[in-house]
Amino acid sequence: MKRGLFFAGILILLSLVLAACxxxxxxxxxxxxxxxxxxxxxxxxxxxxxxSPVKLSDYKGKPVLINFWATWCPxxxxxxxxxxxxxxxxxxxxxxxxxxxAREDIPTVSKYVADGGYSWTMPMDYNGEIIATYGVxxxxxxxxxxxxxxxxxxxxxxxxxxxxxxxxxxxx
Length: 172
Description:
Helix content: 25-40%
Largest sheet: 7 strands, mixed
Strand content: 15-25%
Number of helices: 5
Strand order of the largest sheet: 4-3-7-6-5-8-9
Distance between the termini: 56 Å
Radius of gyration: 20 Å
Mean pLDDT: 88
CATH superfamily: Glutaredoxin
Number of strands: 9
CATH topology: Glutaredoxin
Order of helices and strands: HEEEEEHEHEHEEH
């Protein structure tokens, strides 16, 4: 009897492992706003480091990478050259990168952006409202939004070139 239960348990476990290794289930899209994969990205309006308004909904029809970052964040610093390279590579396909800075002042951000040669849009979240809306608990955190406004991938923590490319293929 114990032997039969043991083998039944093994078969169930093996079935679960094999099911987990199968193809990814098709993603259901939800026409509600939430900072989660499969949901519409919550809209926001901020000013960039030049004082110009930046509204997410203005980019509908384009793939958007929303990257929450800070100048003091080592993983943010490490991934930014890869984001710049990807932005230059895919800009002709409509890619928009919004690098939302976390509660820093314009001179600090502008100097960092100029020194690094970063060319994408840098909205400033002075009071942390959008950080809270998106539930960002660590920097960097990225959201990959498709042309219809749905979040198709996320990343908490820094990305290398391969990780960035893998996620971009979901929105390009």
